[in-house]
Amino acid sequence: MNISLNSIVITTIHCSLYRFLGFILLIACCINLFITFRYLTSRYFTKTKHFTINRASPVISGMLFSSTLVIFTTVPFVIMQCFTCQAYFSHEIICKIHGFVCFCAGLFNMYLVALLSFSRYLSILHKPSWLNRLFEQRCDLNVLCCALLAISWTFPPVFGIGNEYVREGVGFYCSLNWKNPSIYSRIYLISVIFFNYFIPLILLVYSNLRVCFTLHHLLKSPKSPKYIRLSKTLSQSKNSDVTDRISLEIDLNRYLPDTRLEETTNRLQRLKIDRRYALITAMIAAQYLITWTPYTFVE
Fold it and tell me: What is the pLDDT of residues 142-165, one digit of tens each?
């Protein structure tokens, strides 16, 4: 059996492949919703007494919100099309809504990943700076600015301004019209790639590399010096010009005050926590690169 979709002939083998991909997408969505539910319950219900707001909480909440929005608004249409091998995005309004929601959520997540990386960079390398204090005090506002910026880039194509949303591939997905030859479309597409891919990419690479190198250096430096050298001058007599210098090695683990050792231990624990946060941020940044780099260069 052959089916013609968007000028592309789909065979029975293709339909079987699309059904398999639709099943994988369904499983991935269920896992995503389960993780979101566990995060919300653990943060806001189970540990209410110990819950504290930090700069990462609004960013994580924004990511979860955008992924949940995509799952409930656009993914069901894609899964139905994969299982039935029929394109429902032939309707212009559905295609525009799908393209807008997916593109807006994608840009929003890009900004949030860049914001998270830059926040970690400031908190570790420039903690006393006014910019770091601003990010700490206005973390919710920063996420809101990311959302407004994403909408400002993705909403105009809904009305055909700059570009438009059209079906891609076999018609199961809608995105920008990358083949539009008009000068306004080219300017818009180049601006999107430059401001929403290359600038966040530079910020991600620079921030994460600086953080990783700094934490590696701090953790590899002497964690708690075990010995301290003291000089003691002994005079043989009052008029003697000969001075004996005796170096005494005193074990700090035995004689150093407990408060000093506790401070050193706490500092190392904070550095290890920062290293784990940096690793998670780097993994999110790597996911960003793996997801968007092929799409950017192919289009």
Answer: 899 999 999 999 999 999 998 999
The residue segments making up the domain with residue 276 are 3-234+245-298
Q: Give the rounded distance of the alpha carbon of 289 from its chain centre.
A: 10
Confirm whether 224 is domain-assigned.
Answer: yes
For the record, the structure tokens of 61 come out as: 């909440």
Q: Is residue 186 part of a domain?
A: yes
CB atoms inside a 10 Å sphere around CB 246: 9
Q: How many domains does the chain have?
A: 1
In order of 32, 252, 265, the CA distances from 258 in angstroms are 46, 10, 10
Residues with Cβ within 8 Å of residue 292, at least 6 apart in sequence: 106, 110, 197
The DSSP element (H or E) to which 43 belongs, if any, is: none
How much of the chain is in helix, strand and coil states, percent to nearest 5? Answer: 70, 10, 20
In a domain, 125, yes or no: yes
pTM attached to this predicted model: 0.74
H/E element holding 136?
A: helix 130-137
pLDDT tens for each residue of 4-36: 555 555 677 888 888 998 999 999 999 989 988
Residue 249's H or E segment, with its range, is: strand 243-251
Handedness of CA 109, 113, 114, 118 (dihedral sign): positive
Look at residue 240 and tell me if it is in a domain: no
Which CATH number do you get for residue 160?
1.20.1070.10
The set of residues, in sequence order, having a beta carbon less than 8 Å from that of 76 and lying 6+ positions away, is none
DSSP for residue 2: -
